[in-house]
Amino acid sequence: MESPLCVSIFLVLCVFIQSSAHGQSLGLGPFGRRPRAAETKKASQETEIRFLLFQEETDKGCQIRLNHPDTLQQCGFNSSLPLVMIIHGWSVDGFLEDWIWQMVAALKSGLAQPVNVGLADWLTLAYHHYTMAVHNTRLVGREVAALIRWLEESVQFSRSNVHLIGYSLGAHVAGFAGSYIGGKHKIGRITGLDAAGPLFEGSSPSDRLSPDDANFVDAIHTFTREHMGLSVGIKQPIAHYDFYPNGGYFQPGCHFLQLYKHISKHGLNAITQTIKCSHERSVHLFIDSLLHASMQSTAYQCSDMGTFSQGLCLSCKKGHCNTLGYHVRQEWQGKKSKKLFLATRAQSPFKVYHYQFKIQFINQLEKPVEPTFTMTLLGTKEENQKITITLDQEITSNKTYSFLITLDLDIGELVMIKFKWENGAVWTNVWNTVQTIIPWSRRPLYSGLVAKTIRVKAGETQQRMTFCSENTDGLQLQPTQEKTFVRCNRNSKKLKGNIR
Ligand SMILES: *[C@@H]1O[C@H](CO)[C@@H](O)[C@H](O)[C@H]1NC(C)=O
Ligand SMILES: *[C@@H]1O[C@H](CO)[C@@H](O)[C@H](O)[C@H]1NC(C)=O
């Protein structure tokens, strides 16, 4: 994000959103696609918002029309199955985006129980200046609510069987549908995928998607990094469970250096792809949860990403963790939103395995120690290649350090850790000095640097383990020398006795 190219592309995005917000026109040239003329015809709302149903994975959609029950039959609506309706967001080019077809296909193929898959196509109302499109979200929400009420009346379809999935502005459309539907009961579920931030951040719950809008609301926040006081995705919690992958600011693989890779794949559209990358990641994380039934990502309740990165939040007690995506556990207590964090890979399958490592160091050197290590983790299934760890502070005295490690692979149960202290050139000199000054025979109990125990908690299995040095004569870590740690009992007496 530091290079001038990145900054300038980001400015384009921000200026675009801001000028749109002020109702000024801005050329779409930089976005690589020729805009289609806005359709400003005074058509009835019914033709401005199209509801499509998909019968097959590769279907282009069959339009259902309010008050025309025959269209339900024609489009294969099955009232004994749930309805999952996709709602797209703001449009910069007047076309339906590719992810919609991917989501339709995933919903059609990825579920054990079939569902009716629908789309609320409000392109003609979304392809406007941002403020106009925002204004239209209420109107579209009202229409979605009307459709659901009509389904209740005409085919006794229960609104609790409706799941709205809204992306960007579409998330707020879903919220408005939930609040405009009226009556005693609520819509079953709403999923907000990186709900739009500008003009919604900080607004009252009735003016945006909120937990009041459905029996269960979940949200995935993926692009909340602020630029010039504005973030594309909303930052504040808006659901019962709010998921913040990688902290929610920005997503791995979306750096502007990736632009060149995207150009070879998408041509000039690469710029749009790169800008949208983090925003749209919310969609792909959700699609991933449909396609990889055996690789569901777990997220953990935490106050912020800093705490999460220390590995301090990997608890599943009292509903403190949940599954990201379609298969989220739909339970919650109270009105308060829960903020959940997780790390992900840069591409599908996005799942990683989370571990908290706690290492107790005893440093009896006069000098602070450079905190760079490598570890190789051996599990019952796999061995993980070297991981480099740099603690955020130098090791100065006796202290336990806690940090988060994530693995792409399922290594099974962790059985052995090979630990190596990577030295800088400076360190080697210090070490040599220490060796010379302190005669071997009169060395203190702990001399040099000792890693006493390594305690590990696996988030995905909730297992806790303690590891001790395999070789108990000489616990000192020596630069560049690999030490092997094996499972042991915490506070093992044997360990203490052998410390000399
Ligand atoms: C509707 O779905 C149910 C449950 O899967 C199935 O038994 C039934 O045959 C379906 N009806 C039609 C008309 O496809
Ligand atoms: C660190 O621990 C060792 C052994 O337990 C002890 O001798 C030493 O005084 C401690 N150092 C500090 C700075 O607490």
From TrEMBL:
Binding site residues for Ca(2+): 208, 213
Pfam families xrefs: Lipase (PF00151), PLAT (PF01477)
Positions of the catalytic residues: 168, 194, 279
Gene3D superfamilies attached to this UniProt entry: alpha/beta hydrolase (3.40.50.1820), PLAT/LH2 domain (2.60.60.20)
The UniProt record lists the keyword Isomerase: no
GO MF annotations in UniProt: apolipoprotein binding; heparin binding; lipoprotein lipase activity; metal ion binding; phosphatidylcholine lysophospholipase activity; phospholipase A1 activity
Alphabetical keyword list: Calcium, Glycoprotein, HDL, Heparin-binding, Hydrolase, Lipid degradation, Lipid metabolism, Metal-binding, Secreted, Signal
Entry-linked InterPro entries: AB_hydrolase_fold, Lipase, Lipase_hep, Lipase_LIPH, Lipase_N, PLAT/LH2_dom, PLAT/LH2_dom_sf, TAG_lipase
Biological process terms in GO annotation: cholesterol homeostasis; cholesterol metabolic process; cholesterol transport; fatty acid biosynthetic process; high-density lipoprotein particle remodeling; low-density lipoprotein particle remodeling; triglyceride catabolic process; triglyceride homeostasis
Metal-binding keyword on record: yes
Subunit structure: Homodimer.
Protein name: Hepatic triacylglycerol lipase
Organism: Panthera leo
